[in-house]
Fold this sequence. Notes:
The complex is a heterotrimer. In chain A, helix 2 runs parallel beside helix 6. By secondary structure, chain A is an all-alpha fold. Chain A contains 6 helices and no strands. The radius of gyration of chain A is 19 Å and the shape is elongated. By secondary structure, chain C is mostly helical. The mean pLDDT of chain C is 84. Chains in contact: A-B, A-C, B-C. Chains A and B meet through helix 2, helix 4 and helix 6 of A and helix 3, helix 6 and helix 7 of B.
Amino acid sequence: MKGMTIIVKTIAGWVKVLIFLFGIYVVLFGDITPGGGFAGGVILASSYILLMLAFGREFVEKNLPQALALKLLCCGVLAFAAIALSGLFFGADGFFWNYIYQEWLAGKDVEFIKAGIIPLAELAIGLAVAASLFLVILNLSSFRSDISVDEKE
Amino acid sequence: MLIFYILLLFILIAAIIAVETKDLLSSVICIGAIGFGASIMFLFLRAPDIAITQIVVEVLGLIILIRATIRRDLTFISGDREFFGTVVSIVIIFTIGLAGLGLAVFQNLQDFGNPIFANVPDAASQEYISQGLAKTGAENLVASIILDFRAYDTLGETTVLFTTIIGALVILRKEGRKTLEGPDQ
Amino acid sequence: MLYALCFLLFMIGLYGAVVKKNMVKIVIGIMIMEYAVNLFLIMLGYRLGGKAPIVGEEDMAGAGGQVSDLFLNSSVDPLPQALVLTTIVICLGSLALMISICIRVHEKYGTFDITEIRRLKG
C-alpha cells in the first residue's frame, strides 16, 4: 500500500498524536465518563490505521513491527487474567472479587484507583483490543498489495 | 418519539438499497449510512457508551470492507441465483410465517418506553442502579456492570475476540506450510 | 410499532444472506442482522424521558454513595447496554474473519460468485 501526497502526510502526522491522546483519555476515564476499555481500544487502533493509510504500510511496519504487536496482545489478555486470579490470593473470597475496593478503599477519597479493580482491567482490555485490530488490518493490507502487484504484470 | 421513526425509516431505506443494488461500492457506502444512523439513534436512546463504540467500529468496518472489495473488474454483479422460483418462494413463506409469529410476540411485550425493571420489583437492574456506586465505587454504571457485577461475560468476550483475531491471522498468512519434498528423514 | 420496524430490518438482512449470489452481499446481510439485534436490545431498555445511567453530583443522596429515589425512577436500564457493548466489538472481529475468508476464496477461484465456486474444481 503506497502513501499519499505530502499535504496529507503532514496533517496526518499531527492529527495522529491527537487521536492517540484522545484514545488514552477514553480508556483511563472509563469509570467516570462514558467510554471504557472497548471504545478506547478501537480509537487507539484507528490512530495507527490513519498512519497506515497516509504513509504506506512499510513505514508503519518499521514503527511498530508485527512481532511486537503480537506480544502486546498477549500481554493484554494475560494481564486481564492475572487481575482476575489475584482476587483468589488477596481477597480469599473468589475469582474476580473487587478486593481493592472492598477491603482497602471503601469510604476513602483517592483519585485514580477509587473504583478498585475497574481501571486496571480497562487498561488491559484497551491494550488487547487495540493490538488485535491493528494486527488484522496490517495483515489485510499486506495481502492486497501483493495481489495488485501481480496483476499488473 | 417522532425522531425514532424518522431514523428507523432512514436505516430501513439504506438497508434495502444495500442489499438490492448491483454496484458493490454503493452497498458498502450504505452500510456506513446504516451504522451512522444507528449511532445517532443510540444517542437519542440515552446510551452514550454504545454510541461512541458504534461509530468508531463502523468506521473501521468500512475500511475493512473497502480494502477487500474494490478492484478494477469486480464492481458489477449479475442477477440472483438460479432456482429463482423455489428459493424466493421458500424465503417469502418463511418470512410471512416468522412475521406472523413475530406480531403475536409483539403484542405481549411491554410498550416502548416502559422498561421491564420498572414493573418487576426484584429485577436485577434495581440492585445495579441503587447499589452500584456504593458497592464498586464507579460512577459509570455500565462500567461497573461489565467489570464487577458481570465480569465473567467480559472474560468470555476477551476470549472470543482473541480467538477470532488469531483465526483471521492464520487465514491471511502468506507463507504456507513446508511442502513435502524432503520426505523421509 | 417500533419493535416491528426493527424486526423488518432483521428480515431484510436475512433475505440478503439467503438469496443473494455474491459473497460480499452475504456478508453485508449478516452485518445488517447484527445491527438490527443491537438496536432491538437497546430499545427494550429505554424509559420515556429518562436519563443516561451515569451518576452525577446531584443524584447522590447523602454521603456513602446512595443514589436518590428520583434517579432510581428516571434512569434507563443499564443492563442491556452492558451486554451490547461487548457485542459490537465482537461483530468487528467476525467481520474481519469473514472478509479474510472471502479474499482467500477470490484468490483461489478468481470470482466472488458462489455458484461458480461449486462448479470449478480448483
